Amino acid sequence: MALMITDECINCDVCEPECPNGAISQGDEIYVIDPNKCTECVGHFDEPQCQQVCPVDCIPLDPGHQETKDQLMDKFLKLTGKA
Questions:
Q1: What is the dihedral angle through the alpha carbons of 55, 15, 27, 36, rounded to the nearest 10 degrees?
Q2: Nearest alpha-carbon partner for 31 in 42, 47, 44, 18
Q3: Where are the beta strands (DSSP E) in the chain?
Q4: pLDDT for the residue numbered 71
Q5: Is 37 strand, coil or helix?
Q6: Quick check: is 58 in a domain?
Q7: How large is the average pLDDT for residues 26-45?
Q8: What pLDDT does residue 60 have?
Q9: 4 located within any domain
Q10: Does the predicted model carry a pTM greater than 0.85?
Q11: Which of 36, 1, 44, 75 is nearest to 25 (CA)?
Q12: N or C: which end of the chain has fewer CB within 10 A?
């Protein structure tokens, strides 16, 4: 699954620079995650870095974008040009 940012987001800006895929950006009201770029940090790190630094724990799995670890790895390979 890709991750998502909920409306509990306080716009603290700590998640955006941690994303190795550039999937996080400022939305209209809160930060948002592009599910086409989010790999849950598969291929980069053992755990999603945005979740690790979020002070309000507002970055859960996005039930609207379910993916297996293999699918996330395939996405990582395509995004990094290693496919």
A1: -130
A2: 18
A3: 24-26, 31-33
A4: 97
A5: coil
A6: yes
A7: 97
A8: 98
A9: no
A10: yes
A11: 36
A12: C
Contacts of 17 (CB under 8 A, 6+ apart): none
Q: Report helix, strand or coil for 3.
A: strand
The answer to whether residues 1 and 40 touch, using CB atoms and an 8 Å cutoff, is: yes
Structure token digits, residue 14? 């700590």
pLDDT value for 49: 98
Note the pLDDT of residue 1.
Answer: 79
What range does the domain containing 59 cover?
Answer: 16-80
> What pLDDT shows up at residue 82?
85
pLDDT at 10: 97
Q: Give a yes or no: residue 10 inside a domain.
A: no
CATH number at residue 59: 3.30.70.20
Instruction: Provide the phi-psi class of 76: left if phi over 0, else alpha when psi is between -120 and 50, else beta.
Output: alpha
Is 28 inside a domain boundary?
A: yes
Domain count, the chain: 1
